Amino acid sequence: MGRADDVVRAAELSRQEAEGRALEAKRREQRLLEELRRMFEKEQLRLEYIDDLKRRHEDDKNSLGEEMSALQEALRKERAKRADAEAGAVHSEQRFLALDHIVRERIEREGEYRRAFDGERVRLMDAFRQTHLVAQLLSEAEASLSALERDALPEQRVFDSSALLASLALGPRASTPPPSFRGSDIVMA
Questions:
Q1: Cα pseudo-dihedral 60, 66, 69, 73, rounded to 10
Q2: Rounded to an integer, what distance in angstroms lies between the CA atom of residue 18 and that of residue 26?
């Protein structure tokens, strides 16, 4: 029986060694599985991170595209406003030039009217002076004729020039000088 015990002991030792190796293999397998699980988790995290980066990149790209579109639209509107403003400025400048031309023409016409008015005023003053001179001459002639009539024909009626003056529309104030005109007395319309 010694031999059988040796065989049993050897078998027991082999079994224990095999169990130790199996346990060691099981532990190694557990470590490898744990390592694989961690590697898989890391790979999943890396893939999620990459997906997140792609998503963020796509979001940024879309956001930049929207901003670019908004900026292009704002630029288009600004250009349209600028074109409208420039057109308005051109229109305003044309209106200003037209009004300036009208004002210059009016000033020129007013100068012509003023010169014509002043010329007429001078002519009227000359006419008044001449009328006054004629009235004085008639008054002097009347006095001379009256004196001559008295000397030559004392019994006849004395010459009266008032009828003559009335016919000339000079009236009873023919002997008074004409009123003077001042430029401030005249109001231009």
A1: -140
A2: 12
